[in-house]
Amino acid sequence: MEGEAFDSHGDLDDADLEWYSDFDGYLGTGPKLSVTGLSVGLHRIELQSRGLSAFVEVAVLSKAWTILMYMCGDNNLEGNAIQDVNEMEQIGSDSNVNIVVMLDRIPGYDSSNGNWSDTRLFYVTKDTNQSTITSQYLGSAGELKMDAPISLGAFVKWGIQTYPASKYAVIIWDHGSGWSEKKMKAIRGSCSDYTSGNGELEIWEVRQALRAALDQVGLSKLDLLAYDCCLMGMAEVAYETRNETKYFVGSEETEPGDGYEYNRWLSNLAGNPSAAGNTLGQYIVTAYYGTGYATLSAADINQMNSLVTAVNGLAQALTAAVPSYKSAITTARTNTKKFYDVSYLDLYDFCAKLKSGSLPTTVKNAAGTVQTAISSYIFAKGGNAANAYGVSIWFPATYNASMMSSYLNSTEWGADTSWYTFLDTYF
Q1: What is the pLDDT of residue 189?
Q2: Does 122 lie in the same domain as 26?
Q3: At which of 60, 77, 108 does a domain end?
């Protein structure tokens, strides 16, 4: 909202003019007012000066979408984070869409844009400069631990309360590595924050953070949760937040450093702000150029129960087949499409290899049922990787007690489905 006061006598200083809202309180000082993020409702905007006042009533309506970008650039992807914010600025927020960024940076990788290294908030506005961030600066949050669930939860809560909309998307931006526990590799989960000790947000911490934020603002689910991170397009990852989002976007494989094509899909959303969460997911996926190995997919979480039922059936059939057919199961695993983390298998392709292998009919039928469930669950795919059908699953080549314990005790997929029982029997 913008406002302007005119002094016909010219005897008032800027400090004499103060703007207030009966909803949101003090708004600013000076003859001109420019403010975003007003609470939804009918405001009495009052201008006060030397004991005098004037007011106007302004109705603030919610927008169609608020996109909340949680960007951990506190690592070697700092330059890519700057690049992606500039991509967002090619489109910018408008009368229907809010784009809000929380970006953490680090010294030593990218010295552009003032070379600040704290965590800053921006309301993304349109510009034509593709190297300098010119969006509205909303302030610094200090040096936040982006790998802490409290940071994610606080940002989501604040973003929803400050920028109300009919629909909400949260995009987590950074390194990623699927479900696995961080003790086994340098990066586990997502949001690797070098300054805070190279920690990560585990998938169960994302669930906890989103659930707390949503409960506090009175929402049951996001319309879309997307990971602009590597290796997060897993059954285990999507299942973890099945109660926190309607639709999910993630990549089975690693992503290029600059990740999503923000200008492309935001342009589509600007042209169709009434889009539902599945349509936004499709925009993100189809806009994705990637590379020859790239993957990206959008999933309908409403189909998750059917997928779980099908995977349980397959896991139970495989468990029964292990004593006599372990070698054939191993062959199917060996021949299945794998990703940068070779313990992550494309679930659809694994089922295809089971169906073509020397295995009992119960296994083959169950594999076909899983493929049917995946076809309903995954509704959009991007990238050019062969034999990547949209969702991966954990099936390591060797047994690791720590990983197995974490899978069972930390992930909801491991605790709730029969997949852990199959793996335990197999090993």
Answers
A1: 73
A2: no
A3: 60
pLDDT of residue 185: 46
Q: Answer yes or no: do 286 and 322 share one domain.
A: no
Are 232 and 336 contained in the same domain?
no
pLDDT at 243: 98
Q: Are residues 398 and 347 in the same domain?
A: yes
Same domain (yes/no): 67, 165: yes
What pTM, to 2 d.p., does this model score? 0.87
Averaged over successive runs of 10 residues, the pLDDT of the chain (427 residues) comes to 73 78 88 78 85 82 93 92 97 96 92 92 96 96 93 97 96 92 53 78 95 97 97 97 98 92 97 98 90 89 98 98 98 97 97 98 98 98 92 97 94 97 98
Decide which of 277, 300, 323 is a domain's last residue: 300
342 and 211 in a single domain? The answer is no
Q: Are residues 293 and 201 in the same domain?
A: yes
Q: Which domain holds residue 311?
A: 305-426
Residues 283 and 355 both lie in one domain? no
Structurally, the chain folds into a number of domains equal to 3
According to the model, what pLDDT value does residue 306 have? 98
Measure the CA–CA gap between 23 and 427, rounded to whole angstroms.
Answer: 61
Q: Could you tell me the CATH number of the domain that includes residue 216? A: 3.40.50.11970
